[in-house]
Design brief:
- The protein is mainly beta.
- The radius of gyration is 13 Å and the shape is globular.
- Strands 2, 4, 5, 6, 9, 10 and 11 form a seven-stranded mixed β-sheet that branches.
- The protein has no helices and eleven strands.
- It is 0% helix and 50% strand.
Length: 124
């Protein structure tokens, strides 16, 4: 069964860091685009970053550029989201998603597999 499992969420103070992990169970992430999304209460879901294992291209939303870094470890079928200098407005449930394809990362990818989400709370 194809499944994505997120981990690494938690509570952090403003300016702190967290690293989220997205583990692919039941499939490898070769030739996939994997994206990280977030949704805060009362707000629309926002794509924050993605990476293509096809060409190693990456995409970042303007709201996280310079603070978040997406990377992958194919050997462990895992994609990471390193989040630094966290702000109150980064508080949300973070989801990862994946779709198979020889395409670059970008904001208009139609994802087919979704994880259950992990909560990130930035609080003083």
């Amino acid at each position: 069964q194809v499944q994505l499992v997120e981990s690494g969420g938690g509570v952090v103070q403003p300016g702190g860091s967290l690293r989220l992990s997205c583990h692919a169970a039941g499939f490898t992430i070769d030739y996939y685009v994997v994206g990280w999304f977030r949704q805060a209460p009362g707000k629309e879901r926002e794509e924050v970053a993605s990476i293509s294992t096809f060409d190693d291209s990456t995409y970042y939303a303007d709201s996280v550029k310079g603070r978040f870094t997406i990377s992958r470890h194919n050997k462990y079928y895992t994609v990471y989201l390193q989040m630094d200098n966290l702000k109150f407005e980064d508080t949300a449930v973070y989801y990862c998603a994946a779709v198979e394809g020889l395409v670059p990362a970008g904001p208009d990818v139609d994802y087919s597999v979704w994880g259950q989400g992990t909560q990130v709370t930035v609080s003083s």
